[in-house]
Amino acid sequence: MEFNKIDLDYRNYTTLKLAGNLLHANEILTFCTKNGSAPYLALRDFVEEWLHPSPYMSIMTSGSTGKPKVMEVAKNHMLWSASQSAKYFNFQKEQSALLSLPLTYIAGKMMVVRAFYSQLNLYIQEPKTQALQDLPLDITIDFAPFTPMQLDIIPKNVQLPRKVLLGGGPVSKELEDKLQDFQEEIYHGYGMAETLSHIALRRVNGPKRSEIYQAFSSVKLRLDTRNCLCIQLPFQKEEITTNDIVQMKGPHSFIWLGRIDNVINTGGIKVFPEDIENKITVLISCRFFISSKEDAILGEKVILILEKNGFTLAEWKILKTQLQSVLSKYEVPKEVYTANEFIETHSGKIQREATLKISQKAI
């Protein structure tokens, strides 16, 4: 689908259905104000900016690789993203959708734009880990975006939305294995604030489960000299250069390997922290991540950081034996560090460098 400014004129998308109430323009603002809860007031502020004559609106990056920054984006470009999602997920008018993400960031904002574009019946609730517990029992949700953390703690007997979009962080192997017990369609999106949500998706569960992300056909992809992904969107002249190392599987498909910011060169061998984390997630009960420290012999040595108050030598010996059974000798952490509480961005992502600075060597 080529970008067409006329077809995607934001001024033509001012009707929103909220929990069964069909509202137009300022009626949305009145409805949200009358409700008075925090998520509805946040929605009111977003819609007020959407209805403003300016063709642009402000969004904030997550801050996962640096300080969060404010960007100005075109509303018509947001509608392009919504149109791609609608085509991929086959949205139908008045299908139900749930927003349980903060409207501070692009994921929450784009769910509202999708509701505008596809005329979805949108339910909105306080962003929290227990994303489905407050929904009335008689409501069936057709589509909802969640973070991996939100989905990780949902009991098996809870009915998920018919289609689920995961984003905001990687899906661990442990979570992906757990999701095979669900019959609903679960996808993981690849994207960022700069791409206005996902530009590629992969199926996480079921017979169509795959590690390969399939990008929208109108998005052009290539690798730079670092083997990092470069993205050309149909409405931008300049391509977006990422720090994501990927393996291209076709013109519009790739496997995500990790971030170049995190790659560890240990003894001349490059290892990916995200890959190691996926392999060992079933062995560690607390939150953790893999990082590195300078080493006189190896250049960099792999280390393990645990969100834990203390760690004994006996515990480390047992864990190290388990790690050696699933990791190559270059991937096995040489040291273990602990931090009482990980430092996070406003969107809940772990700030690795900041956390590493406050961590203490355990043994």
Topology, pairings included?
Layout: E1 15-18, E2 21-24, H1 26-35, H2 38-51, E3 56-60, E4 70-74, H3 75-89, E5 96-99, H4 106-118, E6 121-124, E7 143-146, H5 148-152, E8 163-166, H6 173-178, E9 185-192, E10 197-203, E11 213-215, E12 220-223, E13 228-232, E14 240-250, E15 253-259, E16 264-266, E17 269-271, H7 273-280, E18 288-295, E19 299-307, H8 313-326, E20 335-339, H9 352-358, E21 360-361
Parallel strand pairs: 1-6, 5-6, 7-8, 8-9, 19-20
Antiparallel strand pairs: 1-2, 3-4, 9-10, 10-11, 11-15, 12-13, 13-14, 14-15, 16-17, 18-19, 20-21
Helix pairs in contact: 1-2, 3-4
Features:
single chain, 363 residues, alpha+beta, Rossmann fold, GMP Synthetase, Chain A, domain 3, 2 domains, 9-stranded mixed β-sheet, 4-stranded mixed β-sheet
* Rg over C-alpha atoms, rounded to the nearest angstrom: 22 Å
CATH H-level homologous superfamily name of the largest domain: ANL, N-terminal domain
Return the CATH architecture of the largest domain: 3-Layer(aba) Sandwich
- Largest beta sheet, briefly? 9 strands, mixed
Strand order of the largest sheet: 7-8-9-10-11-15-14-13-12
3D structure, described in words:
This protein is of the alpha+beta class. The chain has two domains: 250 residues, 3-Layer(aba) Sandwich (Rossmann fold); 98 residues, GMP Synthetase, Chain A, domain 3 (2-Layer Sandwich). It contains nine helices and 21 strands. The strands form five sheets. It has a nine-stranded mixed β-sheet. A hairpin with a 4-residue loop joins strand 9 and strand 10. Helix 1 packs antiparallel against helix 2 and helix 3 crosses helix 4. It is globular, with a radius of gyration of 22 Å. The N and C termini lie far apart (56 Å). The mean pLDDT is 92.
